[in-house]
Description:
mainly beta; 9-stranded antiparallel β-sheet; 5 helices
Amino acid sequence: MAASSCSVQRAQLYTPLLKEVADVLQQGLKKNFEDVQVSVVDCPDLTQKPFTLAAPGLCGSSRLTDVGGVPYAFPLVNRQKIYDFETLAKQVDLPGAFIVGAGAGPHHVVGVNCEMIGNIRTSAGDQPSINSTYTVRINPQDGSAIQEKATTSEFALLGNFYCSEGRPGQVLEVKASKRSGEENFMSCMRKTLANHYDKKPVGLGGTFLIEKGKAKLHVMPDFSTTPLNTEKDVADWLQYYDRSAPLVCLGVLISHDPDLDLRVEHFHCFSEHGEGGHYHYDITPQDVSYRGYLNVAEYMYRVDRPQKTHQIGSMRD
């Protein structure tokens, strides 16, 4: 989809100091996990294992982008909604951007509907693209989920991404283990920020690692030929899997939607052992251990916002 054919809205986000955000998250996460440590650290080299991202850091011109949306997937799919990370980098005013996050995969390339774990450094000038994106599709023969390296910079329908220059620098390190409450890791962080900052939109993006334990993930099957009109329709259509650590999760969250019809949290996972999908929550509360590296975003870019919207299947909570 050409950049000129998509609407783009930009909003400035509230950007508190990292130390302040760390203190807020420390207090909030302690209500949901027994062991919590949130710090401001120099970002480790994220190109190295276990993260294996396409750039070393999360710093420089940080921004979130929400592309398309669930109305393009439900009740029935709009197959014309095809996007490209290379174009997206220009749409968010950051050619050569390092982009990580969660979206729907390129069904027109993979052959079926699929999940996508976006992880790409886009091209700019003499800088070639480094595409470490994965897709996860369902094998119709046996119902197993297959994780594969992407062969294109395209994706479809919807996506939620953190974009930056990929530079080293200071970021939030969020460690939490032994879940004692009901909230999943990303929702707990988002709701903590929402409670503290109220209607000031604070956006975070980057990666977290599920180091120990197991998590519930879903993978979308191929497109439904009958309309999915309710949350139950979507929930019954999705395929769910219990997956084992280590799982590398990529995505975004935002504490408040500044009237842009945003998906407020969205993370997808991949792994060296071939298991991946859309993160819901951990299922081993006493064993689970999370370690995340996140940065505060300066802007939100809303790309190709649906004119007719709904929240069915958005997994906002």
